[in-house]
Amino acid sequence: MRTGSEPVTARSPLRLRFWLGMWGLLWAVGGTVVFSLADHPGWAAAFAVLSVIVVVDLSVVVHHIHQGPHYQPGPDIPPYEPPRARG
Q1: SS3 readout for the chain
Q2: In which residue ranges of the chain is pLDDT below 50?
Q3: How many Å is the Cα radius of gyration of the chain?
Q4: What are 31-47's pLDDT values in tens digits?
């Protein structure tokens, strides 16, 4: 059920997702380097693809962070009614 305080109390996980993505990027790039030096081109390519995916995800996260807060209904909007039981 909605309490009406969500716009005030809501927290965005974007910064956490950013830092977890950075951690993943560090490991993906490290894996690419290690497998390249160990002469395992298949694994190096897999980690390189993973690195690209993480970079794309990080760019989306940064874009959303830079967008700032979006519209949230004010206190004049009443809370939603709880769903009624079926049957």
Answers
A1: CCCCCHHHHCCCCHHHHHHHHHHHHHHHHHHHHHHHHCCCHHHHHHHHHHHHHHHHHHHHHHHHHHHCCCCCCCCCCCCCCCCCCCC
A2: none
A3: 21
A4: 999 999 999 999 999 99
The residue among 57, 73, 72, 71 whose CA lies nearest residue 14 is 57
Burial status of residue 24 (CB atoms within 10 A of its CB: 0-12, 13-18, 19 or more): middle
- What is the rounded CA–CA span in Å between residue 23 and residue 47? 14
Cα 48 to Cα 31: distance, rounded to the nearest angstrom: 8
Q: At a CB cut-off of 8 Å and minimum separation 6, what does 35 contact?
A: 41, 43, 44, 47
